[in-house]
């Protein structure tokens, strides 16, 4: 760990298992809207990006809906968000950089701390890193381009492939889906646009690192992934954000379309600093014989509300949500998954693991919907929660809604603490209580970590060990 | 609209007045409220039903010292007991519960003094007296320290009407209550109710709820494990046919350490029947070494049947074991094939499978009499 670059306070924060990536670089954005959100701000964003008229209209109607729509009355407490005290758009550099050397010094240092170049050297296929609102670095390797794979930041995607974007944008998550999807639709900036042509299987995961840097900077990235017939892609996003004293808002929208026989896996490790509101809408449509998998890890943020969804639209489509949440001091992780079975013989699995500690609260909230006519559907939901100490809390709200009788649906959930017997066994082998607890927790989340790319699994285990330090007694 | 105008003690008149105000201030619940999301009351106006005296039958031998009587009659004889306990378990802050407090005409008082064991079950039967009629039934069951009893209540409505039910169970230290509540209502009858128990130290509650029909029924069934070492077992079985709708809203609240709760609900839905089960296990801060379980299984016999199953956990203690499960499925085709290959007609084979589905529920019922009653009711319903 690169502790040496941190201030004494930050080093202490790391030592006591709090936020790890709490550093902050100075930089000056080239363009920024004023604080707060008005119709004028929305117009400015669109004008600055020189967008087509239809996108401006989409943004404006989204803005209108955002203003009219009340805050959700369920889930986490969102009443403390001050929408007038947020910058909705900032542009950090003038042009997209082509290589690492073109990046501003401060940014490169930040990424070095996060370990991106090493990761890329190893096996990254392409990196789009979002620093504030624009993707400033984007490297699409030549062989991908040759196969016809499109991997852009969303703004460039709109400019260069307007026809594809227009066909899918806002169709899976309409602008009026919920208040925060409406907000994103009004002010979105950056994110990824990926198109994988029929039959193309990308072996290595595509990755993008996201960071929020400026204080009170909302980040509203918008991602659209289209996996054509028989194609495959694994997209990985990792989020880190520096610590600030006032709250930041992150509200992304991710839309994925998986065509017949295609497969998409989308992996997120969210480790926002513990003052960020992370309110994200993610939804995928899987056509006949297609597979969609969400792997969703929520470790950071103050409040997360995120329920990745799969609509199983075609026969034999398969959906999976693997969710892990870690709620520490002052955190509320309200996470889960939504699966809609809309066609016959579709199948789905939701697996959720959560850990609550130091007064943190983790909630599983899920919806399993089986539409009429989705005969032969099979669905399984498994939620396990671990509570480390008596100050913490866990909730499970698994909604199940079945409109078809020829189905097999199962749900189970357990809540437990670290088993005394497990602990005793490991300690009798010479491990300290702390090491033993850490090991048991790692074992608890193992069904999720084993699905992650190696470097993420290592990172995840390290983060959990860090969080578990000083947790027993 | 008070049917109980005869001179009541001031404390009761005061409570009825307050409840009437609460009732007037609360709207009829709509689907926008989370608890009513799956039970639609559109077109139902509780005030359109004329409140009539309760058609109540009590049966069973209460030994000396045990009070088992109509609630209305006990106002005079057991005023102190009523004043202390009535409304102490079920509060009036909900539309139907406040209606009940304001309007209850009769019901049951069962009081078992400390250390007394009542062997034979005590029974209450409630019927609707006519079409378009509303009846408000209220029961207060108080078991003092170490007492034991079995209480069975049955709601039998031969007419379309509206039944409002509030049952309060006070189970003292080391006491044990077997409580059975059966709905066998008319296809167009409605029943809304709250049943709630407070279970003290080392006390035990064995609760069985049976649903065998009705156009709309919603029952809140709540147990509060208030004392250390207390245990609650809740068993539910429902068998619903065309147009029938039952909604069970269960809460297992663990408010003390070393408490155990075990809830198991099974339902079979035919034609356009619809069942809702929403269950919450709540473990309060400090309720360590809680062991809580909840499970709901639904068997759908028709393509039009529908089941919503919403388990929930809210846990604020760490040394706990809480588990829940829910499944929805149809008759296993292999089981059916096996039975039919042995020469059994399809209908009979299906009945056998449904009986098999309910068997684990029957096995949980301690009282043989209750088990046989349920078994007979199932046979009658399935035939």
If you had to describe this structure to a student in words, what would you say it looks like?
The complex is a heterodimer of chains A (473) and B (383). With 473 residues, chain A is of the alpha/beta class. Chain A has 2 domains: 3-306, no CATH class; 420-473, no CATH class. Chain A has 12 helices and 23 strands. In chain A, the strands form 3 sheets. In chain A, strands 5, 6, 8, 10, 11, 13, 15, 16, 18, 20 and 22 form an 11-stranded mixed beta sheet that branches. In chain A, strand 3 and strand 4 (134-140) form a beta hairpin. Chain A is globular and about 70 Å long. The two termini of chain A are 26 Å apart. Chain B has 383 residues and is α/β, with parallel strands linked by helices. Chain B has 2 domains: 10-330, no CATH class; 332-383, no CATH class. Helix content of chain B is 21%, strand content 43%. Chain B has helices spanning 10-25, 71-77, 79-85, 95-103, 333-341, 346-364, 368-382, and strands spanning 50-51, 55-59, 67-70, 106-112, 122-127, 133-143, 148-156, 162-171, 176-184, 190-199, 204-211, 216-225, 231-240, 245-254, 260-269, 274-283, 290-300, 306-315, 320-330. In chain B, the strands form 2 sheets. In chain B, strands 1, 3, 4, 6, 8, 10, 12, 14, 16 and 18 form a 10-stranded mixed beta sheet that branches. In chain B, strands 2-5-7-9-11-13-15-17-19 form a 9-stranded mixed beta sheet, with helices on one face. In chain B, helix 1 (10-25) runs antiparallel to helix 4 (95-103) and helix 5 crosses helix 6 (346-364). Chain B is globular, with a radius of gyration of 21 Å. Chain B starts with 9 loop residues before the first helix and ends with a helix. The model of chain B has no long low-confidence stretch (mean pLDDT 91). The interface between A and B is medium-sized, with 32 and 34 residues.
């Amino acid at each position: 760990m690169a502790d040496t670059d941190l201030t004494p306070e930050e080093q202490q924060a790391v030592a006591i298992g709090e936020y790890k990536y709490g550093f902050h670089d100075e930089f000056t954005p080239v363009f920024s809207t004023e604080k707060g959100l008005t119709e004028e701000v929305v117009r400015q964003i669109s004008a600055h990006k020189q967008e087509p008229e239809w996108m401006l209209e989409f943004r404006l109607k989204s803005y209108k809906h955002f203003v009219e729509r009340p805050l959700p009355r369920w889930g986490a407490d969102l009443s403390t968000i001050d929408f007038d005290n947020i910058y909705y758009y900032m542009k950090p550099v003038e042009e997209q950089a082509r290589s690492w050397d073109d990046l501003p010094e401060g940014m490169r240092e930040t990424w070095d701390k996060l370990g991106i170049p090493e990761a890329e050297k190893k096996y990254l296929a392409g990196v789009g890193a979002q620093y504030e609102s624009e993707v400033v670095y984007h490297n699409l390797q030549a062989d991908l381009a040759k196969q016809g794979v499109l991997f852009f930041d969303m703004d460039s995607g709109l400019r260069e492939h307007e026809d594809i974007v227009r066909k899918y944008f806002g169709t899976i998550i309409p602008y009026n889906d919920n208040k925060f999807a409406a907000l994103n639709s009004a002010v979105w900036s950056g994110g990824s646009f990926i198109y994988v042509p029929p039959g193309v299987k990308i072996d290595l995961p595509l990755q993008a690192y996201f960071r929020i840097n400026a204080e009170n900077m909302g980040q509203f990235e918008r991602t659209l992934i289209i996996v054509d017939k028989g194609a495959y892609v694994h997209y990985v996003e990792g989020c880190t954000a520096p610590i600030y004293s006032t709250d930041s808002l992150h509200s992304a929208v991710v839309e994925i379309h998986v065509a017949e026989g295609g497969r998409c896996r989308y992996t997120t490790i969210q480790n926002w600093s513990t003052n960020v509101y992370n309110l994200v809408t993610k939804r995928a449509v899987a056509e006949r014989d297609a597979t969609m998998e969400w792997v969703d890890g929520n470790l950071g943020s103050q409040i997360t509300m995120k329920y990745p969804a799969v609509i199983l639209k075609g026969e034999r489509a398969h959906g999976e949500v693997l969710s892990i949440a870690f709620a520490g001091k002052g955190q509320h992780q309200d996470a889960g998954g939504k699966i809609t079975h809309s066609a016959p013989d579709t199948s789905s699995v939701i697996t959720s693991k959560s850990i609550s500690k130091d007064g943190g609260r983790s909630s599983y909230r899920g919806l399993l919907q089986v539409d009429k006519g989705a005969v032969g559907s099979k669905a399984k939901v498994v939620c396990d929660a671990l509570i480390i100490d008596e100050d913490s809390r866990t909730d499970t709200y698994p909604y199940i809604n079945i409109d078809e009788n020829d189905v097999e649906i199962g749900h189970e959930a357990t809540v437990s603490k670290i088993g005394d017997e497990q602990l005793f066994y490991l300690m009798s082998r010479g491990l300290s209580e702390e090491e033993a607890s850490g090991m048991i927790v790692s074992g608890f989340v193992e069904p999720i970590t084993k699905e992650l790319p190696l470097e993420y699994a290592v990172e995840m285990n390290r983060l959990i060990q860090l969080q578990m330090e000083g947790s027993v007694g | 609209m008070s049917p109980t105008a005869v001179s009541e003690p001031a404390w009761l008149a005061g409570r009825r007045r307050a409840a009437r105000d609460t009732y007037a201030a609360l709207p009829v619940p709509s689907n926008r409220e989370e608890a009513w999301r799956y039970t639609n009351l559109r077109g139902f106006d509780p005030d359109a039903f004329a409140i009539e005296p309760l058609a109540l039958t009590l049966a069973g031998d209460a030994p000396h010292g045990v009070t088992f009587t109509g609630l209305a009659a006990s106002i005079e004889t057991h005023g102190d007991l009523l004043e202390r306990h009535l409304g102490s378990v079920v509060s009036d802050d909900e539309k139907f519960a406040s209606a009940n407090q304001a309007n209850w005409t009769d019901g049951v008082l069962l009081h078992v003094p400390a250390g007394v064991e009542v062997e034979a079950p005590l029974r209450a039967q409630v019927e609707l007296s006519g079409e378009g009629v509303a009846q408000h039934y209220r029961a207060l069951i108080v078991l003092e320290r170490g007492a034991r009893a079995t209480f069975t209540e049955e709601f039998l409505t031969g007419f379309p009407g509206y039944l409002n039910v509030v049952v309060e169970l006070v189970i003292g230290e080391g006491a044990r209550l077997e409580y059975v509540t059966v709905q066998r209502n008319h296809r167009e009858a409605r029943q809304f109710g709250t049943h709630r128990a407070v279970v003290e130290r080392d006390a035990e509650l064995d609760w069985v709820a049976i649903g065998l029909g009705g156009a709309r029924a919603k029952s809140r069934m709540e147990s509060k494990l208030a004392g250390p070492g207390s245990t609650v077992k809740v068993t539910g079985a429902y068998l619903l046919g065309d147009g029938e709708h039952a909604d069970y809203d269960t809460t297992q609240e663990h408010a003390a350490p070393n408490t155990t709760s075990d809830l198991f609900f099974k339902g079979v839905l035919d034609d356009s029947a619809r069942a809702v089960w929403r269950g919450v296990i709540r473990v309060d801060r400090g309720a360590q070494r809680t062991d809580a379980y909840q499970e709901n299984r639904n068997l759908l016999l028709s393509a039009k049947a529908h089941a919503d199953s919403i388990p929930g956990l809210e846990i604020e203690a760490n040394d706990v074991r809480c588990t829940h499960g829910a499944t929805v499925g149809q008759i296993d085709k292999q089981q059916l094939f096996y039975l039919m290959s042995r020469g059994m007609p399809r209908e009979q084979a299906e009945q056998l499978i449904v009986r098999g589905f309910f068997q684990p529920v029957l096995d949980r019922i301690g009282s043989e009499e209750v088990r046989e009653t349920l078994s007979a009711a199932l046979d009658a319903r399935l035939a």
